[in-house]
Write a structure and sequence with these properties.
Two copies of one chain form a homodimer. By secondary structure, chain A is of the alpha/beta class. Helix content of chain A is 31%, strand content 22%. Chain A is built from twelve helices and 17 strands. In chain A, strands 1, 10, 11, 12, 13, 14, 15, 16 and 17 form a nine-stranded mixed beta sheet that branches. An eight-stranded parallel beta sheet of chain A has the order 2-9-8-7-6-5-4-3. The longest helix of chain A is centred in the middle third of the chain and has 24 residues. Chains A and B meet through helix 5, helix 6, strand 10 and helix 11 of A and helix 5, helix 6, strand 10 and helix 11 of B.
Chain lengths: 366, 366
């Protein structure tokens, strides 16, 4: 947690990352996934930072995962040469098709998700001018019921992709349905493995080899990083957040590498202070029960309500209320939306500010 | 509502504004507030667009309201010369003090909110190098229990501001506690009026004249635009959104001027489609009951769940499911966070795209 003295000259609200914690998080996940013989392909939607992606790659990541064409472009421009766009992108518009073709030609290894013949057809049409086939991964549904074909239908879609002239590189899945407890996450990871095995059988029955089997998000990564899975795509682990602490996907608040620095702007109402972090800083991630973020320096406090530019922080009896002008540190419930709301990170190392890094791919949704 | 044909070449997700509806919304609020002899000072946090602020000023707005120093700077740079920063800004850091002094020197009429002697002292210190006094408005609490002193304490704080060398321009309040029904909004507006009258009495007892009495947000503006109120600060009315339709603060969906264009990216799971608008497009504004936005072209559909880049849209039996690649139009529950997530608006007039306008003050939180 950044020291209050370090933050006193920072204009708030601001996002502060502690590089010592971030590097430890990078190393820990890399060691855990790597030691199982699985490639770590971090999802950079969590941080959208070229500098942070470079640290992940230097630590041993096999490439990166992105969620939009715009994100892929930012990281390609920065020289990242192995990018998986884990999204069932629709390439229908002329401009979108052109951008996908450009990424395909430019990035050494570029692959895209598909879960429909119609989507595959657009991707094939977009990349037809190229000398080589676009690599696609067939998305399968392991229980989230979001995107992805049923595992037993994966072979048919893969065959259709081949017929369209695409290169089928493998399969991927996301256990978004995994519950919050450790048991539920173990169960979600088992669903990923089970779905992957059924999908592999479906492709094999069509005579289609499966190179890449991609599964795993921060909640399930440690449990699904085993055969037949070859790659894992966690994202949040680089920062962790209050929800990760609650989930047990990190040990404690000491593993959280991203904080919001905020200033007390009003103490006019008894029993609370108002801070300058609202939904435009923290997103509306939370609820009345768990609050909208944690303020560890004020035990028992509750960030009970957010407006766009105001946070209502209840202070329990017996805890000294901060004064107007005091800078506080908030642990967000969910780090990813916070990073996406800011143009830069304030970077701290060895307890002191050392840099400001751009959130290079902030926005870039399409 | 933008026509589907108009949107088919747009890369999604994208924010589309219909200038005909927006202009009608601007004119309607201007006429309603202006006809009561009250000045309209729109809150530009809702749109963060210089072009849209200019349209509001050309229609008769007396100035604009902003929520951060950064927003004030963007609009000052664009030449807006009457800006009220309706926020209890803390000017403690050296850089923040310098920025406030710069706005004070540069903007013809610049005023700032205060609700504490400590905050007032920092503002006075920041602007002491200037030849003229900074204008402040004392914030009073009309029932939201967020920021603002009790109305009967307003005179004492105003006296303290004068002692510090500030210019007390008046008072302001925000009825954030007003409930959803028309009666509750009328009641919230009555609280604004009542609090304003008590605060005026408190200042008058100290011999301090009250020039500006500012109250009113989109839900309460029409009910509190009467003496002693001199200025009203609604923001959302320029766009309206699904919550405004539910509240009755606009007539119908035809009054909504901001939409999200989104593409169906998966139909793999029966009974639903997945769209490319998630929390990074719509914010997490909503709940399971009302959903996270409306898709009027699909009656009975429910945008029941959002991930960061995916929206789960349930399609009722009997309604034809859209196909992968179809572009849909979502009415957000809350327009303000949506505008803040995008770098540009796609502007439609007479049913056709005419421009792309930057969301000039996107971010700019500090």
């Amino acid at each position: 947690m950044p020291n209050a003295d370090v933050l006193k000259d920072i204009e708030t609200p601001a996002v502060v990352i502690d590089l010592d914690v971030v590097d430890a998080n990078i190393q820990r996940m890399q060691a855990a996934i790597g030691s199982r013989g699985v490639g770590l392909r971090p999802h950079v939607k969590s941080h959208k930072s070229v500098n942070l992606a470079r640290r992940q790659l230097e630590a041993g990541a096999v490439g990166i995962t992105v969620s939009s064409v715009g994100e892929a472009e930012v990281f390609a421009e920065a020289g990242v040469d192995d990018i998986f766009l884990a999204y069932t992108i629709w390439a229908g518009s002329a401009r979108r098709a052109e951008r996908i073709l450009n990424l395909h030609e430019r990035v050494r290894s570029f692959s895209v998700g598909v879960d429909s013949a119609a989507g595959a057809e657009q991707l094939a049409a977009a990349t037809r001018p190229s000398q080589h086939a676009l690599r696609v991964l067939v998305e399968i549904d392991s229980g989230a019921h979001r995107t992805g074909v049923r595992p037993e239908d994966a072979g048919a879609l893969a065959a259709e992709c081949l017929r369209l002239g695409l290169d089928v590189a493998g399969i991927f899945t996301y256990a978004g349905h995994a519950g919050r407890s450790r048991e539920a996450r173990v169960s979600g990871a088992a669903d990923e493995i089970d779905a992957a095995e059924r999908a592999i059988a479906s492709l094999t029955a069509k005579g289609i080899p499966v190179g890449t089997v991609s599964a795993g998000s921060t909640p399930t990564a440690l449990f699904s990083a085993r055969a037949p899975v070859t790659e894992s795509r966690p994202g949040e682990y680089i920062f962790n957040d209050a929800d990760n602490v609650r989930l047990g996907t990190c040990e404690s608040l000491a593993d959280v590498g991203l904080h919001v620095a905020t200033t007390v702007v009003s103490t006019a109402v008894e029993g609370q202070v108002i801070i300058d972090a609202g939904t435009k800083t923290l997103g509306r991630e939370g609820n009345v029960d768990k609050g909208f973020g944690l303020v560890p320096s004020l035990p028992g406090s509750s960030l009970r309500l957010l407006n766009e530019h105001h946070g209502y922080l209840s202070i329990p009896d017996g805890v000294k209320r901060p004064a107007v002008g005091d800078v506080l540190t908030v642990v967000p419930n969910h780090a990813c939306p916070v990073a996406n709301l800011f143009d830069e990170y304030i970077v701290i190392a060895d307890g002191a500010p050392v840099a400001r890094w751009p959130v290079d791919a902030r926005g870039h949704l399409s």
